[in-house]
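Weekly modeling sync, notes
Attendees: S.R. (lead), two postdocs, one rotation student

Agenda item 3: backlog of single-chain predictions. S.R. asked that every request posted to the team notebook include the full sequence so nobody has to chase files. The rotation student volunteered to paste the first one in as an example of the format we agreed on. Action items at the bottom.

Example entry:
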Amino acid sequence: VAFDITGHCYFIEDGAETGNVFRRNLGSGIKMMPAERASQLGESSGRTETDGDSNGFNGASVFWISNPSNYFYGNIAAGGDKNGYWFETHGLRREMSLGAFEDNEVHSSGRFAFSTYSPGWRPVETAYIRNLKVYRNRVWGAFLHVTTNVYFDGGLFADNGRKDAMISRGDNIVFDGTTFIGQSPFADNNGNKVGIHLDPVRLKETVLWEHTGYWKGTTVKNVRFYNHSQPMQFFSHQSFVKAYNAPHYIENVWSDAPSTIEGCMSNDPTIDDLQIEIVADDNGDVTPTGKAGFLVSPKLTQMVDSCQEYNGCLQFCEGACLRTVTVIAGNAAFDDDVNMVVTRTSDSQTLLIEKDQRGERKHNRFSAAYTVALPKDHYTIHFESPSSPGILQWPKSAVPIFEAAPSCANHLVESDLVFSKPESRRPECDELIYNGNFEGSSWGSEGWHSFHHSLEHSPDGGVGGSGAVATIMDLSQSNKPAQFLDASCVEAGNEYEIAFSYKILGGDASSVPRAKIETKEWDASAKKLARTFVRPTGTSTSLDGEWTTLKYQWTADNTAGKADQMRFFIDGGAQRVMVDNISFTKTRGGRRERRRLR
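Predicted structure, as returned to the notebook:
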């Protein structure tokens, strides 16, 4: 028993400790260390010592767990200024497996009962939290932030603050057989209660190169809710791509009062494509009919039959089977209005999807995203601009990434989608670089980004006083000016002349920057984009004052002709550069082949 402790009570401090067993321990009355005492301790230790901000999330916890590979049985965290059980896993420990966590309790915490914030916990193997009892904690019962693969098996959440469980960008989270009590007769009423706060977006975002289709959102099954104003609510606490990409599964949930799943997304109504699978509703407490189906945002009902009103923000489609597809595209950094149009082959029903990207468009280095949920059928997909309707466009690249499959069997697969690409020998394909003189009308450097870090646009720092961009770090630090090219234009055998001008701003003046090309082709078996780097052949170097112009020749091979994604970039050494007058010009067409459509 530990009582009236200042600072963490039971803790694994260095993070190297594994295999320890914590069994039937009690910690209570845990207090934050006063600031003056922390200062004194810092003077003696020679380090900056702190016990957190009194108004912040973290600090003195009953159990502070920096390495999850330990064993916890039958412990009780019985009150303190901050958290009951705080998993703070840094570095490689963030992915380490749990030893065991069974039959533990936590109550009367000043902040969270069970927390993985921050920096989040993402064990490779599923971590089972068995029979955890969480009650009468002031803020939230569980706070699962940027956390994956955690399975709550049984357990009880009761009389906590406004939310029993808060999930913020969490993947593969499961609540199975858990009981949630929003308000019992043994606690004061402190307002509206949410059982589980569900997040419509994943941590493992598709535009951040997670393409396996393995990651789901939250599964809630065999769960019982008592006395909640809202048993389950969707709320985007921290979203980047404004689209639903975390498939959720709800199965045989029971509630003591009629309730619906709240999906209005009041804090972020731009997320308008929810599709929530109701695997089963034997209790008839979630759906109007007590049958399996999908809850969907109204936008998606254009492609789904037999839907009915649910709660104003969602509709229930009994018997439907939907799957979300995120088409990643190469136009995130471009100031365009290209939309994706999905057309059902059988009846020509269409659905328009607008472009989305992670963050703002200026210098955006990620893929753009066009996200849609569709039932099983055959579809054609094309891209067009409202400013030029009826004319096929191409968002530089378009690769369909299928999110985690639903439990229903008859769902969408890759062969159900066919993309309509524009002609590869259209006039726009004669020059693959857009805005190579950096004089775009919106922010000057439209279309350009860097592998890492940002670029700095100069409206008059280029050749002859034209626009240009400069790196803010050395090229060798991945601050490489880059642009996604229109992959639909490139055929095997095409010949190109590539040119750019540069001047050294600082660093190693002896190292010469060089043009490179990155191609990627979708590998369906590995569920990833296979990458190849190409160095075009240098042909000439010319000097004009402080500016140097480099020219290259490149002939597209079969790998380039089949590429789903292409990117031009400028590589180099330990120097900062300014670049201008970049071009990638076709000088001769190659052989026309039937391009692979997916």
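Discussion: group reviewed the output briefly. The helical segments are 35-45, 558-562.
Action items: rotation student to repeat for the remaining queue; S.R. to check formatting next week.
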